[in-house]
Amino acid sequence: MRTEEALLELESSPQGLSNEEAKKRLVRYGPNQLEEKNKVTPWKVLVRQLANVIVWVLAAAAVISLMAHEVINFWAIIGIILFVILMGFLQEYRAEKAMEALKKFVQPVTRVHREGTLKEIPSSEVVPGDILVLESGDMIPADALVMEMVGLRIEEAALTGESVPVNKEKDEMIFAGTQIVHGKCSALVISTGMGTKLGEIAGLVQQEEETTPLQEKIAKLARTLAIIALIASLVTLVTGVSKGAPVAEMLLIAIALAVAAVPEGLPLTMTITLANGMRHMAKHNAIIRKMLGVETLGSTTVICTDKTGTLTRNEMIVRRIILPGRELDVTGTGYEPIGELLDDKTPVDVEQDKGLELLLTAGALCNNASLEELDNEWKGVGDPTEIALLVAAAKAGIWKGELDDELPRLQEVIFTSERKMMSTLHDTQEQEMAFTKGAPEMVLDRCTRIYGPYGVRDLTEQDREEMLEKNRELAQRTYRVLALAYRPLDIRSEELERDMTFLGLVAMLDPPREEAKSAIETCHAAGIKVVMITGDNQETAKAIARDIGLSDATVCLDNITDEKIRDIVADGAITGTELDELDDEEFRSVVEGINIYARARPEQKLRIIRALQDKGHVVAMTGDGVNDAPALRKADIGISMGVKGTDVAREASVMVLQDDNFATIVEAVKMGRGIYANIEKFTTYLVSRNFTEMMLILIAITLLGFNYIPLLALQILFINMFNEVVPAISLGMDPVRDSIMHKKPRDPKEEILSRRNLTLVISIALTMSIVSFLVFLAADPFTDVQKARTLTFVTIVSMALFVPNAFRSLDEPAIRMGLFSNRLMLTGMLITLLLILSVVYIPLFQLVFELTPLSPEEWVMPIGAAFLTLLIAEGIKLVSRGRKEDAGIMDRCGP
Fold it and tell me: What's the Cα-to-Cα distance from 155 to each of 53, 145, 158, rounded to whole Å?
């Protein structure tokens, strides 16, 4: 179908739809998105609860109770089963919905023409009849017909499986889910959502969520502990029966112990912790696309980051214009086109200054950005450098929209990282004119003439050196400099970028982000090396590095004998060209000392990552372009830009920055460390609690026999169901402390129950069981066993009031954590206290759990014992705490 016919059929135009018509079509056709096949439903979550092995173990206990004519036990266990199912359902469904909501944070955006204006809209709001504006790196949001194109090549592997890009011409179809890998185009949307080709095969592109190493570690730990629990329960059963205990009663206790010792709360608590942590990260502009990112963030040792927009504000503003023989200042801030062009503080009349007018015109025409005022605020769409050129031209009364009408574009030669230039060809009625902008050294190399104060003349070697020297001088002051040139053409087929006339230099400033310096200081304190990789020249990169505290002298030269290598890396900053001069072995020998890569090409990022990983580092790498995708996939943490990043980069990444801010990366690392630390906390707590009752029963049966067991089956089940998961969840949501960034990165191979944590588990579990047994003995079970069991029961339940505080840090004393910094834990403590009072004083619960009311004086012993356990746990932490390791970054000249 031809474009003209399609426009007519869809009742659209090259200027796009009106906003009102777009709203109507969105209602008619629905959102531009695929239907989700594996959508979370309440029924699926409920079925998962019924598949829980704990439910079936409890069901077996209920059957045994009924067979033993223990009717109260039977109904109590049925109640516990329903409670387990209900709590599991509520918590898991909430976590699943949170994860589902999190996916919506990363909303792909698309540029379209609406009412003749270029706008960015969520891709889900694209409708048939929209005019898409797409360029290299964009994911195509809908099936569309190409209207205009320049060097268009499409990666259609998502549909065809063929990885070789396909050339596309005018009036050919492009399809949703495919990617532009070269060129640009405008295209008319034909179909959206499930009506696209991708919609027809939607089932093929929906993948199951991958299992991460952390999930595997938790599952492995849970299986191991379950086996230990079952063996220990069997030993308890055999021991009890050998001591003369009734088989049915002993079987109930053994099952209760198995339920108590199996850490069924681990997977659930981990899911809740990850969902909460990822949601918290999203609020801080870091979207984790894969759970793998959370666990890897805490191990990051090197962050390789872009400069523009990440370490700087990405708000380019033209500050200086260098014309042959003179320099101008440009006033004004932001994208608002209000300001003046000053020559020695005197305003310049652009209409009387043809060289300046031509330079500003070139900057506005050789440009794909747009500038518009919306709701009294000026907004630019496109590359910040191009927006800065539009703003500078607008300050002189030169507007791109008017120029496009007067001098229509005939051709474009797109920017490439090899040429470092972009050119456009325009019809001036009298003749055709080419305008070029790009890196000064590249543009000057293609120029043979210069527009001086008295018109056009030949470009001399002195002119060239003066402009290059001015470029170096401005770059040292952190300016980004572009050169502008033009060429009149008599024959269109002539090469645009040769024999050009040089117009001048434009110096733009992109100031460092205020928070970048403190973020880098935090990285250094956390043992994380920061590496800047930029396409800008070396002087600009080093100037920014100095401003933000990124040292540029970290290479140890003591062991480097090769003079070539010493010269290249002496100051810790090298260029892409110098990097090419080093072979892989030479580069690996110095890579840890280099933290500035200037004039670097995207494909060189892959080499940097490999060299760092070969040295044992866990690397986070930022990227925003199509060429960054291989590096983002190779990095341990690929980080794409949410503002300026391409769809290809986002698809290849693990984390998306919604604000493109380096400080957000550091905050995400901090949160990643905090989430993993919380997983360690609740795992250590749960395992120690799970084995407390088992140790207690084994000690009692061995020393006192079956008649003096400190806890009955239902009491054990109550402690397990109501007394462990809430504190564990509160530990999983413990606030992240700043001190976590004063530690070295975690070894990714380290198990959750490390040697230190395992020592804590065994020691604290044994302490709680011994303290509880001593309370049982002190209560004189030989006189009143029910009273003694009540006091023991209350002691163990009361431990949940105090002991979880010891686990809020596995290193620091509990008193440093702050009593009120974890409100969920305070809520859990209050609920625990109410539960204790309920089961002890409400007659029905007394009957069910076989408890005796306690007098106020009798509370002293269990509460005191529970508090004493906290103090002992703190002492155990103090003894097990190893010598604190320095958190400083790697020794420059160390081994």
Answer: 47, 16, 8
Residue 688 sits at the vertex; the CA angle it makes with 685 and 692, to the nearest 5 degrees, is: 135
Q: Where are the alpha helices (DSSP H) in 691-842?
A: 692-704, 713-722, 725-732, 755-778, 785-806, 823-841
> Got the DSSP string for 274-302?
HHHHHHHHHHTTEEESSTHHHHHHTT--E
Residue 429 is given by DSSP the state: S
- Alpha carbon separation from 62 to 81, 221, 247, 813 (Å, rounded): 9, 28, 15, 43
pLDDT tens track for 726-771: 788 889 889 888 888 988 888 877 777 888 888 888 999 999 999 9
Q: Which two tokens stand for residue 272?
A: 């809740």
The one-letter amino acid code at 737 reads: R
321 neighbors 504 (Cβ within 8 angstroms) = yes
**Identity of the residue numbered 719:** I
Alpha-helix runs per DSSP H in 182-212: 197-200, 202-205
Which pairs count as long-range contacts for 378-382, CB under 8 Å and 24+ apart, including other chains?
378/334, 378/335, 378/336, 378/337, 379/335, 380/335, 381/111, 381/118, 381/119, 381/120
Token pair in block for residue 273: 């912790």
- The SS3 call for residue 649 is helix
- For residues 196 and 139, give the distance between their C-alpha atoms in angstroms, rounded to a whole number: 14
Instruction: Tell me the HSE value of 520 on the side-chain side, using a 13 A CA sphere.
Output: 24
Q: Which distant-in-sequence residues (6+ apart) come within 8 Å of 92 by Cβ?
A: 45, 48, 49, 268, 271
Contacts of residue 164, Cβ cutoff 8 Å, sequence gap at least 6: none
Separation between Cα atoms, residue 178 and residue 843, nearest integer Å: 68
The structure's pTM equals 0.70
pLDDT tens digits, residue range 288-310? 877 667 778 888 999 999 887 78
Residue 77 near residue 57 (C-beta atoms within 8 A): no
Is 306 catalytic? The answer is: yes
E strand or H helix that includes residue 110: strand 109-114
Beta bridge partners of 623: 640
pLDDT at 257: 73
Report CA torsion sign: 714, 839, 266, 880.
negative
CA distances for 258 relative to 54, 97, 252, 265, 596, angstroms: 9, 31, 10, 14, 57
- Is the distance from CB of 236 to CB of 228 less than 8 angstroms? no
Q: What is the sign of the dihedral through the CA atoms of 842, 847, 849 and 851?
A: positive
Q: CA distances (Å), 227 to each of 84, 215, 255, 261, 693, in order?
A: 21, 18, 13, 10, 16
**pLDDT > 70? residue 615:** yes
CA distance 533 to 599: 8
Decide: residue 799, CB within 10 A, 0-12 exposed, 13-18 middle, 19+ buried.
Answer: buried
DSSP state of 34: P
Distances (CA, A) of 851 to 771, 835, 840: 20, 13, 6
Q: DSSP E strands: which ranges in 356-494?
A: 370-374, 377-381, 409-413, 421-427, 432-438, 447-452, 455-458, 479-489
Kindly state the tokens that stand for 89.
């359902």
10 Å Cβ neighbour count for 109?
17
Among residues 306, 510, 536, 636, the one annotated as catalytic is: 306
For residue 55, give the nearest of 277, 268, 315 by alpha carbon.
268
Instruction: Return d(Cα 362, Cα 443) in angstroms, integer.
Output: 13
Reduced to 3 states, what is the DSSP secondary structure of residue 818?
Answer: coil
Residues shown for the chain: 895
HEC profile of 695-710: HHHHHHHHHHCHHHCC
CA distance 435 to 174: 30
Given a cut of 50, whether residue 341 has pLDDT beyond it is yes
Tell which residue, 583, 587, 574, 582, has the closest CA to residue 614.
587
Rounded Cα gap, residues 653 and 665, in angstroms = 13
In 153-264, which ranges are continuous DSSP H helix?
157-160, 197-200, 202-205, 213-242, 247-261
Residue type, 861: M
